[in-house]
Amino acid sequence: AKERGRNKFEFYNDQLNFSYSNKTGLEQELHLAYKNNEFELFFQPQVALESGIMLAVEVLLRWRKSRDEVLPPADFLSLLEDMGLIIQVGNWVLEQACYYRESWRQQGLISDTCTICVNLSAKQIIEPDFADMVKYTLAQTKMPAHLLELEITESILLEDQDSVSEALLELQALGILVAIDDFGTGYSSFSYLKSFPVDILKIDRSFVFDVCSDPDSAAIVTSIINLAHDLGMQVVGEGVEDDYALRYLIDHKCDRVQGYLFSKPLPYCEFMAYIEDQTAE
Ligand code: C2E
Ligand code: CA
Ligand code: CA
Ligand code: CA
């Protein structure tokens, strides 16, 4: 019987190996990328409309496959989410972001109120210990909570709304800011803005992009700005690529802007140079 048991074990073991080798090559590569620290953050500023002062920095995930090959999230994020690896990678993103922000604070490199913005996947927020993880990271990095902005998309509202809003409320009580990303592109109704703790709306760049040539986009952008302000929220225009879009957002009293007109997302060293440039002016 013992002998049979062992064979049985080996049989199952073979099966496991078999299914492992059946994983797509990209999944295995992503596991290795995480293990070998190939993920990296790029940084993109958000600036105040009139003064041009940097009000926030968004961190954006990249996969550096080799020195000159850097992949954007479009190439791997949905697979990271399907694999569940987004939990670990997302924790790492948050930790890095807080770590950098706190080191800039200690060095006095950027303004005391400039926030750091971190994108979250639905998978991360529905983890039962999500709020605890964020608190732990703040404690570890010593970064003040009010300097952290968490960006979520409306798709998160398709998840368990009670547990998500409970976690966000708990974090908001600490001073963390909550932003709705890609606002206007989701399928949800406005009602969640009443029950959800939201501080900031980010207008999706598909509306900002042609705000000056498409009257529909212009109407949507104006409405989102007014809605945000009527609800006591701040509003950010994303994807600002030219002076026309910028002029429109200034005229309609948008609070902050982000886009290639100011800077592309930059790797760490280039972002440091950008900051020095700004303070030198
Ligand atoms: P997002 O949060 O909407 O981020 C803005 C995206 O627009 C970025 O793409 C950025 O490079 C791009 N962008 C910024 N300014 C302009 C502009 O003026 N014109 C145009 N055409 N594009 C502009 P990126 O870095 O490829 O990121 C794509 C998406 O991946 C992000 O969209 C976000 O949803 C997701 N993502 C990025 N980093 C993370 C992360 O750490 N965690 C999670 N869960 N998602 C992330
Ligand atoms: Ca974002
Ligand atoms: Ca966005
Ligand atoms: Ca987007």
Automatic annotation (TrEMBL):
Give the source's domain of life in one word.
Bacteria
Q: What stretch of the whole protein does this chain cover?
A: 440 to 720 of 735
The name this protein goes by in its record: EAL domain-containing protein
Residues in EAL domain copies: 23-279
Q: Which organism is it from?
A: Shewanella eurypsychrophilus
Q: Where does the signal sequence lie?
A: none
